[in-house]
Amino acid sequence: MAKPSGTLQGICQTARQDRGRRAFLSGAAAEHIVERLYQARGVHVLESRWRGQSGEIDMILQDGPEVVFCEVKKARDFDTALSRLRMPQIQRIHGAAAEYLATVPDGQLAQVRFDLAIVDATGQAQIHENAFGHF
């Protein structure tokens, strides 16, 4: 028998779904802003939200000879966005990047860069090139 939709469990689940949907849409909007910034610089977007077994990479780009792996963080302000990147996530991104590189001709010998793009609540963005180095 189905539970009535007005139960506390149903209300909490709906609120959680709403938060998840807002976070997804907010992240997608931030990624779109960052994508436009890269394109204005002549950087070609190869993949968006690429998923490997190790994790997801928000954007994979080609900047001349370099393959760029970009993590996008959105928050109310730049400092908060910067603080949201943690070492376990960097390690997952490195693992996913290694998986991705296994699919390209130069493989692990490819020139790579890891960028961090941050977006604030007003839609302003900053790209920090080589934010967490090479592996």
TrEMBL record:
Gene3D superfamilies in UniProt: 3.40.1350.10
Single GO molecular function: nucleic acid binding
Any Pfam family the entry gives: UPF0102
Alphabetized SUPFAM superfamilies for the sequence: Restriction endonuclease-like
InterPro entries xref list: Restrct_endonuc-II-like, tRNA_endonuc-like_dom_sf, UPF0102_YraN-like
Family membership noted in the UniProt record: Belongs to the UPF0102 family.
HAMAP family recorded: UPF0102
PANTHER family, alphabetized: UPF0102 PROTEIN YRAN
Name of the protein in its database record: UPF0102 protein HAT86_06160
Species this chain originates from: Roseovarius gahaiensis
